[in-house]
Design brief:
The structure holds two protein chains of two kinds. Chain A is an alpha/beta fold. Chain A is built from twelve helices and seven strands. Classes of the chains: A alpha/beta, B alpha/beta. The complex binds thiamine diphosphate and magnesium ion.
């Protein structure tokens, strides 16, 4: 399958943006600039970008506690996100949600989510709306290897099949849920078979490889969009950081992180593909790197200068309208 | 007496209960940690470190689970029904949203619906409350909600000493107990005896004693109220500070007797106001001590809003010593 040059450029830029965003967020947390609980997506960039390459603005995604990558890939404003993480009232969610709740409904981003497997049922609702409206939209939920053991995930998968809605369940296996390995937490040997037993196809991809994820997600999303009911994508790829910033990572094996960064880096893998195919030159990719670095630097400067929220904003936006109606 | 953090005091209570009674076991997400991984199983001890070392001594009785809160609470309830004394950990009280049925419709109701013929001595521990910029899904108190359900007991310690004694009582209690640990207090220290001791449920603690105003506070609001009261002493104002320690059962007499003596009541909690503990205690006083009241009752609590992320917003959201001071002064005006 040949991918248009514009798509390739955009994919690389987006992966690089996620990478630099996350690495900078990590540094700013260490500096004490970003409060709260933050979970970094570094290493898993190809998953979000490979999936979202098949979506337009009116398709929806729902994300997780590790949501920055998904939101950036779906088109969230990077500067608005950075401001949100800094707790500014100019942030994408006015400083109300922070890292775990980045959302932009107009862009089809139904929110990062602090509840593991809180997203899949909501995504089924979005898919049901698409089915009723017959508008050809799909609803993608991202969730982790730890989410698949939650009742809400089982319920959502089964109901999506029963209702035959265009829901796509993207399961990102980064091997761990917090400090527990998937081999312990998932009781069966074959999670793909367990998931397919619900009654929909699952397409598996190497999450270090944008092209592999792009292909698998393409099949799943086409399946759903064409009215064949839900589909799944399994992407396997480790995260580079701890579960949260500051995690001592006692669960890692000898050399595991070095191996991940060295041999399973979506950005390097992408560049290798480009070197082999000649579709994009090193100069083109380097230019993107420089632009992205500047954009992230600017976003941090903007976030540091942005307005801080004031106490009267606490009770704004709890409701649209509250009290006696006219 | 040795100083210990609330985290260590709870951990010590767990160790001692495990040692004393083989029917006690710990269950939850990462309560051991590293299962299935290259790391050493048991090297985590819960995300807040409260179950540290339990797995290393009692590997069979320290059970890591998948992320499945309904099944964790249900398994604790079921094991308790057949005679075990599980202590389950739900990482954040907010995740009650996931396992509400197992708590409210199952374990809370067994004994009554079964005609008094069952026992369910399960303890469910939660980290609870705000103060970490953890936003809407990781900051809720939740104990005020759970207090409204008959059939479960609800504990909210405000210091390391109480936490140890209350947890040991909870584990020995034959009814289901929800144990809410204000997570901003985990690092706070108090003098905690090394030996086992229990603190009975339904017995309030008088943290301060005074004549002018009765202040009732819960969980992380207790030290804030104490700070406010101590500062007011310089202005010649003295207050009773009552920490009920258990919201169900509630030591109504301690509160009523104090209000009858002072004639003034301020109630402080970190949760939003509607159907909450401040309204509950205010209602109690209005109903049963009305003739003693010399001033309107004041409630200090969060507004009717989710917990915001931004530190400035959360600081404005949560009650603090200044707001408590203002409320105390208002009752004296
Ligand atoms: C209902 C619920 N239970 C527990 C948690 C705490 N928690 C946050 S992330 C996480 C691990 C999730 O693992 P996984 O789904 O694999 O996602 P990953 O962190 O690997 O991206 C846990 C247990 C939570 N946020 N929500
Ligand atoms: Mg995972």
């Amino acid at each position: 399958m040949s991918i248009p040059k514009e798509t390739l450029l955009h994919a690389y830029r987006t992966m690089k943006t996620i990478r630099e965003f996350e690495e900078r967020v990590n540094a700013e947390i260490m500096n004490g600039q970003i409060p709260g609980f933050t979970h970094l997506y570094t290493g898993q960039e190809a998953n979000a970008v490979g999936v979202c390459a098949h979506l337009d603005e009116s398709d929806t995604i729902i994300s997780t506690h590790r949501g920055h990558g998904h939101c950036i890939a779906k088109g969230a404003d990077v500067s608005g996100m950075m401001k949100e993480l800094f707790g500014s009232s100019e942030g994408l969610c006015k400083g109300k949600g922070g890292s775990m709740h980045v959302a932009d409904i107009d862009k089809g981003i139904l929110g990062a989510n602090g509840i593991v497997a809180g997203g899949p049922p909501i995504s089924v609702g979005s898919a049901l709306a698409a089915k009723i409206r017959k508008n050809g939209k799909v609803a993608v939920s991202f969730s982790g290897d730890g989410s698949v053991n939650q009742g809400t995930c089982f319920e959502a998968m089964n109901m999506a099949v029963v209702l035959q809605v265009p829901a796509v369940f993207v399961i990102e296996n980064n091997y761990y849920s917090e400090h527990t390995h998937i081999d312990y937490a998932v009781g069966c040997d074959d999670l793909k078979a367990r998931t397919e037993a619900f009654g929909f196809p699952v397409f598996v991809a190497d999450g270090a490889d944008f092209f592999a994820v792009h292909e698998a997600a393409g099949k799943a999303i086409a399946h759903a969009r064409e009215g064949n009911g839900p589909a799944g994508v399994f992407a396997e790829q480790g995260r580079y950081h701890g579960h949260f910033v500051g995690d001592p990572q006692a669960y890692r094996g000898e050399g595991e992180l070095e191996n991940l960064r060295e041999n399973h880096d979506p950005l390097k893998v992408f560049r290798e593909h480009m070197a082999a195919s000649g579709d994009l030159t090193e100069a083109e990719l380097d230019a993107i790197d420089a632009e992205v670095m500047a954009e992230i630097e600017q976003s941090v400067m903007d976030a540091k200068a942005a307005a801080r929220p004031t106490p009267e904003q606490v009770t704004a936006d709890v409701y649209i309208q509250y009290g006696a109606t006219a | 007496m040795p100083e210990k953090t609330m985290r260590d005091a709870i951990n010590e209570a767990l160790h001692q209960a495990m040692e004393q009674d083989e029917s006690v076991f710990v269950i939850g997400e990462d309560v051991a940690g590293c299962n299935g991984s290259a790391g050493d199983v048991g090297s985590v001890g819960g995300v807040f470190g409260v179950t540290t070392g339990i797995y290393n001594r009692w590997p069979d009785r320290c059970v890591d689970t998948p992320i499945s809160e309904s099944a964790i609470v249900g398994a604790a309830a079921g094991a308790a029904l057949v005679g075990m004394r599980p202590v389950a950990e739900i990482m954040f009280a907010d995740f009650i949203g996931v396992c509400m049925d197992q708590i409210v419709n199952q374990m809370a109701k067994f004994r009554y619906m079964f005609g008094g013929k069952s026992r369910c001595p399960a303890v469910i521990r939660f980290s609870a409350g705000g103060g970490f910029s953890a936003a809407g899904q990781h900051s809720q108190a939740m104990y005020q909600v759970m207090t409204s359900f008959p059939g479960i007991k609800v504990v909210v310690p405000s210091n390391a000493y109480d936490a140890k004694g209350l947890l040991l009582s909870a584990i020995q209690d034959d009814d289901p107990v929800l144990f809410f640990e204000p997570k901003v207090l985990y690092q706070e220290t108090a003098e905690v005896p090394d030996e086992m001791y229990t603190i009975p449920f339904g017995q309030a603690n008088f943290v301060r004693e005074g004549d002018d105003v009765t202040v009732v506070a819960f969980g992380q609001m207790v030290p804030k109220a104490a700070a406010a009261i101590d500062a007011l002493a310089a202005e010649g104002v003295s207050c009773d500070l009552i920490d009920p320690r258990t919201t169900s059962p509630l030591d109504e007499n301690a509160i009523l007797e104090s209000v009858q003596a002072t004639g003034r009541l301020v109630v402080v909690d970190e949760a939003p106001p509607r159907c909450g503990l401040t309204a509950d205690i205010a209602g109690l006083a209005a109903d049963r001590a009305f003739s003693s009241l010399k001033a309107p009752i004041k409630q200090v609590c969060a507004p009717h809003s989710p917990t915001p992320f931004s530190p400035e917003l959360e600081a404005a959201y949560l009650p603090d010593a200044d707001k408590i001071t203002a409320a105390i002064k208002a009752t004296l005006a």
